Amino acid sequence: MIVDYLNFISKKKSQITIFILLNIFALIFFLLPYNIFWNMLDLRFSYSEEIVKQSFSSIGEGGRQLYFFSALIVDTVYPALYVSLFLGAYYKLFKENIFLLILPLAAGLFDILENIQVSLLLSNFPTLSSQSIFYSSTSTSIKWIVIGISLIVLIYGVIQKQRQT
User: 16, 119, 129, 25: which is closest to 64 by C-alpha?
Assistant: First the structure.
């Protein structure tokens, strides 16, 4: 079943479709009202209590409610899409080294963990615990580190494939 999924998402049509969907969801985030996109903690590498308070205050009550639901709904679909895009490309490039699939899976896992933690911060605002902010910020940072490593491995794989042809 997993191999069937990997075969499906590694096809050119699937990769193009996932890429288009990924961009549509990015546009949805960009178009959210209350300046949510510009205040999303998800887009930062790390953040402090001061940054969380500033971001949440600047989007207001309506923005926090919308951010809460978008973090749990829209931003759960987004990692599923980019993980699928990475997995399809990795499967095509690194069929003999299936262990590398753990990189995009880890990025998606930390992204979902981050979404849950950001939602908890939003639901508890203005009461914020420094421990919750630390866990949320750490998840965000790890997500970005793993995405960066995943991109480097992907670029390496593309270069190696080009050299072989």
Answer: 119
| Residues 6 or more apart in contact with residue 155 via CB below 8 angstroms | none
C-alpha to C-alpha distance for 138 and 43, rounded to whole angstroms: 13
For the chain, the average pLDDT equals 95
Domain count for the chain, please give it. Answer: 1
Hunting for tokens 């997993």 — which residue is that?
A: 2
Digit-coded pLDDT (tens) for 104-159: 999 999 999 999 999 999 999 999 999 999 999 999 999 999 999 999 999 999 99
23 domain residue, yes or no: yes
At residue 40, φ and ψ (nearest 5 deg) are -70, 130
* 41 DSSP assignment: G
Distance CA 13, CA 58 (A): 41
Residues present in the chain in total: 165
For CA atoms 61, 109, 160, 11, give the dihedral sign: negative
Q: Which region, left, alpha or beta, applies to residue 60 given φ > 0 means left and ψ of -120 to 50 means alpha?
A: left
Asked if residue 104 has a cis previous peptide bond (ω within 30° of 0), the answer is no
Residues spanned by the domain of 7: 2-34+55-164
